[in-house]
Amino acid sequence: MTRKKVTIISLHEKKRRGEPITMITAYDYPSAQIVDRVGIDCILVGDSLGMVVLGYESTVPVTMEEMLHHCRAVRRGAQYAFLIGDMPFLSYQADRAEAVRHAGRFLKEAGMDAVKLEGGREIAETVRAISDAGIPVIGHIGLTPQSVSKLGGYRVQGRTAEDARRLMEDAEALQAAGAVMLVLEMVPDQVAEQISRRLRIPTIGIGAGPHCDGQVLVLHDLLGMFDRFTPRFAKRYANLFAEMERAIAAYRDDVLQRRFPATEHTFTMDEAAWREWMQQMSSTEGSS
Ligand code: KIV
């Protein structure tokens, strides 16, 4: 079967058929190639790159230029996945026209298929403006890491009936404003289930239980490539930090013990050229 590019239409069809949607973050060319080869539906170039790739304390310092740089690399690596660029803090909150222009750069300059914004009803009109400009928008509610200071830390959202009601209203406001998908981060599974049932658009959970229409994980959490902390909701499928450490230490030891480079890594002149050069060397010896 020939593989087709994933689109918003095919993602919505998956929800209608009750088929899980797969999403993962990627930030560079090789990881995008691998994720795409595996057949993951959506690649999110998340602003989590600020923490897991650039080493910032949080996602707050990430800039538009950093996001676009990584989105372009992912675009070059992925052919089929639906590509989502994460709008960084203050690229859409301050001014609606500026938000539309910034969102447009993700499509125009970085080849993304959609953008993602954090927030509920307070950004609904911004979502509408971006969507009206022809740019697909993914919402993101629950724990919104760009507002981590306001939320008082990385904690589960929507635990009380009142907070759950507000989340449902936010989800509906975003859908009404034109959002095409919605990320639910760190919310109780019952809340995620009700929102997923109520909405027409697919929900993608991260720490939101099994009832969402799809799941997303941060690549570096999944691969064991971020050692500052692992969120409880993240499942680790590999320990690449340990594997990379082992490989790099083996290289260091090979160099120190003169085991590397070996013959197969070494280029040699052919015999005749070598002799000719040696003759030239000996005839000029002592003349300088
Ligand atoms: O930035 C990111 O990677 C995200 C996911 C955690 C959903 O927003």
Low-pLDDT stretches: none
Q: Report the end-to-end length measured between terminal Cα atoms.
A: 71 Å
The fold-level CATH name of the largest domain is TIM Barrel
Q: What Rg do the Cα atoms give?
A: 25 Å
Bound molecules: 3-methyl-2-oxobutanoic acid
The overall pLDDT, averaged over residues, is: 97
Q: What would CATH call the architecture of the largest domain?
A: Alpha-Beta Barrel
The CATH homologous superfamily of the largest domain: Phosphoenolpyruvate-binding domains
Helix/sheet category: alpha/beta
- The proportion of residues forming helix, as a percent range, comes to 40-55%
State the domain count.
2
Outline: elongated
The major beta sheet can be summarized as: 8 strands, parallel, barrel
Strand order of the largest sheet: 1-2-3-4-5-6-7-8
Strand content: 5-15%
Structure explained in plain terms:
By secondary structure, this protein is of the alpha/beta class. It folds into 2 domains: 8-238, TIM Barrel; 243-287, no CATH class. The protein has 12 helices and 8 strands. It has an 8-stranded parallel beta barrel, surrounded by 7 helices. α5 (96-108) crosses α6 (124-132). The model has no long low-confidence stretch (mean pLDDT 97).
Brief account:
The protein is 44% helix and 12% strand. With 288 residues, it is of the alpha/beta class.
Question: Could you give the topology of this structure?
Answer:
Elements: H1 8-17, E1 21-25, H2 29-38, E2 42-45, H3 49-52, H4 64-77, E3 82-86, H5 96-108, E4 114-116, H6 124-132, E5 137-142, H7 148-151, H8 161-176, E6 181-185, H9 189-198, E7 203-206, E8 214-217, H10 219-223, H11 240-256, H12 271-284
Parallel strand pairs: 1-2, 1-8, 2-3, 3-4, 4-5, 5-6, 6-7, 7-8
Helix pairs in contact: 2-4, 5-6, 8-9
This protein binds 3-methyl-2-oxobutanoic acid.
